[in-house]
Hints:
The chain is mostly beta strands and 225 residues long. The protein has one helix and twelve strands, in the order H-E-E-E-E-E-E-E-E-E-E-E-E.
Amino acid sequence: MRPILKIILLLFLFTSGKAQQRKNYFPCWSFHQKNADIHGISIGIGSTLNNFKNTNTNGIRLELIGAGIVVPLIPYSPITETDSSEYRYPVSEKINGINISLSGTVCDGVVNGLSIGTVGNIIYKVNGVSVIGFLNFVHVSNGIQFAFISTSNNKINGLQIGAFNESNHTKGLQLGIVNRSKDLRGIQFGVWNKNGRRSLPIVNWQFKKNKKKRSQTHSGLRNRT
């Protein structure tokens, strides 16, 4: 009886592995394909949050029309002060190279390289450069985050540039008209700058942790404006 059970278990594991087996595509395929490794160019129309695809693009990801076009309609920043290790959704896509979206990308994804768009972004993590026309929301940014109007993140290690910049945890520089960071390790340059230590015009700084205990450990950022 035991050998039969072992055989059944092995067959189950084998078929389950086949069901989840990843497929490679070259030189072009759709990034809507699940469990796919695309080498070259991945193409699609829009993506959303909480839509697990487990897809990797090694090259260029081209999004013809992205959900970023509706980002300016959201009433407040989607960025929360949740630690990156506790992010509530698994990473849906990984882009190693360049992510280009006509209107902007909205996905639980990681970009290792360059991400560009015209209207709005909501991306989990960018290791490199993120450039958007109006509103740029990145949960974790390692590198440069830019938008003409507003940028927001939970954590940034690098440079944040926009008219209005907001971050929970900043290591680096903020450049804009209004800069706000709850926990800063760096310098702010702008008309008005606020961090955990003080509020000052033109130049502000913070290099040490606040001695005062924070009353909340999990909260969202305030409204963009």
